Amino acid sequence: MAKPKIRFKGYQEDWEQRKFGELGSVAMCKRIFKEQTSPVGDIPFYKIGTFGVEPDAFISRELFEEYKEKFQYPKIGDMLISASGTIGRTVEYDGEEAYFQDSNIVWFKHDERVDNSFLKCIYGIVKWSGIEGSTIKRLYNDNFLKTEFYMPSVAEQEKIGEYFTNLDHLITLHQRKCDETKKLKNKTLKSVILSGDWIPLHVPEKMSRYIPEALLISMGGATEASIWSNYYEVKKFNPQWKSIPYGYPLENQKFFILDEFNRPCPDMVAGRLFIAGKGVAQGYYNSPEITEKSFQHIVSVYDGILYETGDWGRYHKNGCIEFLGRKDNQLKINGYRVEIGEIQEVMKKSGAEDSVIVLIGEKADNKRLIAFVVSSYGENEMKANMKKYLPEYFIPDKIMVMEKFPVTPNGKIDRKALISEYEKTLASAETAAENNFIDDIIDPSQTRNVLVSALDILSGKRVQKLPKKHNNIQF
Questions:
Q1: Angle formed by the axes of helices 340-349 and 379-386, to 10°?
Q2: Radius of gyration of the chain (CA)
Q3: Which among 235, 136, 240, 225 has a CA at the least distance from the CA of 192?
Q4: The three-state (H, E, C) secondary structure of 20-43, written as one string
Q5: pTM over 0.85
Q6: Could you report the per-residue pLDDT of 321-368, keeping only the tens digit for each?
Q7: Alpha-carbon gap, residue 405 to 401, rounded angstroms
Q8: Which of 273, 310, 366, 445 would bridge 361 by S-S if both were Cys, CB 3.0 to 4.6 A apart?
Q9: CA-to-CA distance for 385 and 395, rounded, in angstroms?
């Protein structure tokens, strides 16, 4: 006997522990042989692989009528259950003219003491006798009939079954609405336009899962050139890409990639990105000095204004532009060219959710590569992981782990604030190092003697002998 913790109002009786074999028997259809089936026909024949879905085999109506009359066949409302493969899948028989594979699809033949809707609930939670924890993938009749479960009165069974049947219908209804909405979204959403320096490589794959009919279009450009100046339609993803291509110039826009002498770069050679065409502005309002630097006239290249974006890129042979990042994303440290984009990609593999890398220091021997990351990993862990993928000179000198990045009023990452944070950390570390150095060489109990000795030296008096620990101190 047992009493569940949650009951419907008005039910107080204990639940009896019973075995299925005490209440009925296992029933199944007559065996159908493969040669009795065909790919098309009158009556669907459900096997374990097609149970609950679309059939892939059929039998003749003549055979169906004969077997239905002579042998066991489910009644409307009986709960069909899978007895092999994924054991316990249930389908309520609704009167469909169909036949079911013997021994693999069975039902429980019982009297009025058991309600079918309650039985369906039990099938979902029962632990079948003799097969729990085993490698057996079949529910034999003997296992079925020896299985125990707790059974309330028929009235309470009906109440429980009704509740969960209604709940299943509600879930099915919402799932159907959700599926219809997804289909509608796929039909109506034709294009997704994303812009930015780099579109993450995982975006096309995610889109193919959730909105497979939509076309991803990559856009790029600058505010000084009407915001968008180039596009790329991602019709097919190339796993060899390091980034989504920047693409091709829009109509009435032009792109030039020039070297340091303002000469056009050959295909696959990196250079400075310039935008030209009808979308380019005349300059910055009331800022002639900045305008002169960014808005240029290079007559050997183009008869009009060229806007220097500050980005680098290169043309591929098919005329497609590959974006390579800002000027400060291509660095040279101790003679080595360091690609910041490559470092950031490895930092993602090493646990960084986001990262910003800056070069600090003016002189060659004083340059430091500093990384600011949002990550749950510490600096040492990240460096150890990065060394698996990158040479030593690519590893940042310092990795500062932060909860979030500071941003400017217009929402961009505030690099100046990041550098300021690093300088504070550096100053704090230097102060701590100096204090530790003094603590290491001077015993606090001898501080007075050391100071007196220093004063004696400066005043020309006799020097007291220092303790042996401080013989290395010179004044």
A1: 110
A2: 38
A3: 235
A4: HHHCEEEEECCCCCHHHCECCCCE
A5: no
A6: 999 876 655 566 655 667 777 788 888 888 888 888 887 775 545 678
A7: 10
A8: 366
A9: 10
